[in-house]
Design brief:
10-stranded antiparallel sheet, 29% helix, single chain
Length: 193
């Protein structure tokens, strides 16, 4: 019996006292239900966070087109997260350029707190784009696209993407007579220009 139902068993109560006691009991029950609901919601959020995967969280953020700051080992890229693939992300930076970021080099990702769509992502899903960074670079090489590559040593190299092998990217720059060969694993960021 809750606190609001005290005195209901005593004889001689008038109708007004009985109605008041029922009203107190009903109010107490609403408060208890609200507390239980908040506790359950908090528990469900905690469970979702504990079951989360990086791919799922990134997918949640991409579906919201969230503003994020992506940190790799040597750089930070700020922009709107638009897509998640097997081993890379697609962002649109502040200049509205597309940027590919290799997830194998991620040091962290932080949603911008002022983003109206911000909430704790909690996904446990696979990336929606079934595509690898190698595949994306092959597609860019088909058009000999000019790119900027941010490498794991902090260097940035520019050139036309000539070819992509199993583990190497071939660039030709306007000032270079010879090709530049970049190991695929050394690419943190690729920005088509």
């Amino acid at each position: 019996m809750s606190a609001g139902s005290e005195g209901l068993g005593k004889g001689g109560q008038g109708g007004d006292e009985l109605v008041a006691a029922f009203a107190r009991w009903a109010a107490d029950e609403r408060i208890n239900d609200a507390v239980r609901q908040r506790s359950r919601e908090r528990w469900l959020r905690q469970q979702a966070l504990e079951d989360a995967t990086l791919a799922g969280i990134l997918t949640d953020l991409a579906e919201r087109r969230s503003e994020v700051v992506v940190t790799t080992r040597t750089r930070q890229v700020a922009g709107r997260l638009l897509g998640v693939a097997n081993d890379f992300l697609v962002l649109e930076d502040r200049e509205r350029a597309g940027v590919l970021v290799a997830t194998g080099h991620l040091a962290g990702i932080s949603p911008v707190a002022g983003d109206a769509k911000f909430s704790d992502p909690s996904g446990d899903r696979s990336p929606p784009l079934s595509l690898s960074l190698l595949d994306a670079l092959v597609m860019l090489a088909a058009d000999r696209s000019p790119v900027s590559l941010g490498l794991t040593d902090g260097e940035v190299v520019l050139g036309d993407l000539m070819a992509v092998g199993r583990d190497v990217v071939t660039l030709r720059g306007p000032t270079r007579r010879a090709n530049l060969y970049v190991p695929l694993g050394a690419i943190e960021v690729c920005t088509p220009r």
